[in-house]
Amino acid sequence: MAQAFLRQPLVPAYRTPIRSRLEVRVSRLADAVSLLAERLDRLPAAYRHWRHFDAGAFFDFRSAHVESLVRIEQLGATLDITLHADLLSPSFRLAERFWAHEFCPAYLAASGHSADAFTEHLRKRIFPAMQRRMQQARVEIAAAGDLLFGRGDITFLMSAAAVDERQRQIRQLPPGDEDLTFVFTQIPTLTLSRSFDLLELREM
Prior knowledge:
Layout: H1 2-5, H2 22-47, H3 55-59, H4 63-69, E1 70-75, E2 78-83, H5 90-110, H6 117-151, H7 154-159, H8 162-170, H9 178-185, E3 192-197, H10 198-203
Antiparallel strand pairs: 1-2, 2-3
């Protein structure tokens, strides 16, 4: 996902420099998420002006970002919009890329083997490396979330969807692996989500 996300550059308002001090990254990430939450909050006033809602134009995303970051679901007369804002975190993107390209292949290769080279490679090298990257992502995302909570950012507080998103993702993990589930749940999330009444959106 992270690799696809980076096919096109983010607009400056959403960029967080990867080679900068943690304090700078956290502040820039919090500002970017706050901007997303504000735009999500303004959606009802803008929605009726679109014949077909254009998420890229509204949120100022390019096509690669819409594919990775925006999920829009219509359930009857309800429109659910979810923004996977963790992808704006450089540390999260590095962890996600390692997960996809290193951890998952090693995990699958070791499955079903008790004490062979694949299992040893996973246990001694890949799993600790995954833990380090997830810890870096956890620190960056948690600090940005704490900053937003500390600011009393109302639009963020209205759309923060950490609990719901974590439960949705955990259900997709392989069953019975407590270590994998534990590592996954150590990362907080900046996911934003709002539900809107379509009839009200069209009448506003």
